[in-house]
Amino acid sequence: MPSLSIKNVPEEVIERLRERAERNHRSLQRELLALVCEAATERGSAQQPTPSPRTPVRTGTKSIREIYEEHRASGLGPYPDAPVAVDIIRADRDSR
Fold it and tell me: How confident is the model at residue 20 (pLDDT cuts 50, 70, 90)?
């Protein structure tokens, strides 16, 4: 696979890219590849680059609050007679 090289990148830009890669649970190289692929497809290129099978496909992220609100709006709630996770773990640990 061909490679690209970018020279003279300001340190502050590199740091922001590292932070972004960490937020997306990617290496810096994988984050840069995802950004380049995204930019290439935004420009209406005739051939869309295919991401590597190891590159996670992310269409967006949600905060814990957003997930919670969606869950509550769906009308679903905890089952009153469901076992509590800590009780399951304790029972398993005590059975050894």
Answer: very high
Single-letter amino acid, residue 92: D
**21 within 8 A of 30, measured Cβ to Cβ:** yes
Q: What's the rounded Cα separation, in Å, for the pair 72 and 29? A: 38
CA-to-CA distance for 91 and 40, rounded, in angstroms? Answer: 53
Residues in the chain: 96
Query: Per-domain residue ranges for the chain?
Result: 11-94
Full-model pTM: 0.44
Taking the C-alpha atoms of residue 23 and residue 56, their distance in angstroms, rounded to an integer, is 13
